[in-house]
Amino acid sequence: MKTRITELLNIAYPIIQGGMQWVGRAELASAVSNAGGLGVLTGLTQPTPEALHREIGRCREMTDRPFGVNMTIFPTIAPPPYEEYIDAIIANGVGVVETAGNKALEYLPKLKDAGIKVIHKCVAVRHALTAERLGVDAISIDGFECAGHPGEEDIPGLVLIPLAASQLSVPVIASGGIADGRGMAAALALGAHGVNMGTRFCATQEAPIHENIKQRLLAASERDTNLIFRSLKNTARVLKNAVSDEVVAAERRPGGCGFEDIRHLVAGARGRTALQEGDPDGGIVTAGMVVGLIRDLPSCAELLERMVAECRESLLTASAFAR
């Protein structure tokens, strides 16, 4: 399936596994790449740049196909050594980096000088245009349906994807709300050149998370996500569970809440433990509205082959209406 994204990234199918904290590890990234897509390691899932170096090596042992590394860089009180993580990526000859956050663009010249293809994630077209001017190779545009941080403007993919496609010269990757070939066909029809999926890849055999979490994803409907941090202007979409319900309740109290009031609920270590030990109500579990479309746990290879077949069938069916 040839698109501008497959040509840019040297992959068979225009399907990218998004960077996911605690999930984007070598087991999953290599499986996606071996299946013909682009697997992505999550850089900051690794506790140190040295650990990222080792994880890149582990991924190389599992696949001889292209894979990337995600680097999400937001302002924080105690930032990790971002420059050293970037240096580890460059030193290991990684060919593709997915970036997110305005601060990540500060490292763009260094990445480009190393010959790395850069995909930048955006939730607004105006931000995408800025990233394009700075020299990124592709834009991943995140609709309001997506897991993680959808921004504060609540623009869904059905509007955001064609807006981005019509205004950008670099190829556009549709992200958020895509779990099957029908969604992929819709994204391509709207002008995208590929799709990015996170939640769907969590519900695969190779995803390095506990079976209990995968079963909770299977059982969820499209209504089973919560938007947290809305009152703090840092919205995140996560799976509806006891912890995220408690966060929402705290934010809705008269007078709201500060981050310190909910820090113990949303701590990253707590979410990591929940994913690893299998307590669906043990911490924050990131998930998009697309959980309502997920009904099985295929291997990554089975998922991609099925998606491509469904996509082709959907495009052919739709083309009949143009006769």
From TrEMBL:
<protein>
    <submittedName>
        <fullName>2-nitropropane dioxygenase, NPD</fullName>
    </submittedName>
</protein>
<keyword id="KW-0614">Plasmid</keyword>
<keyword id="KW-0223">Dioxygenase</keyword>
<dbReference type="Pfam" id="PF03060">
    <property type="entry name" value="NMO"/>
</dbReference>
<keyword id="KW-0285">Flavoprotein</keyword>
<dbReference type="InterPro" id="IPR013785">
    <property type="entry name" value="Aldolase_TIM"/>
</dbReference>
<keyword id="KW-0288">FMN</keyword>
<keyword id="KW-0560">Oxidoreductase</keyword>
<dbReference type="InterPro" id="IPR004136">
    <property type="entry name" value="NMO"/>
</dbReference>
<dbReference type="GO" id="GO:0018580">
    <property type="term" value="F:nitronate monooxygenase activity"/>
</dbReference>
<dbReference type="GO" id="GO:0051213">
    <property type="term" value="F:dioxygenase activity"/>
</dbReference>
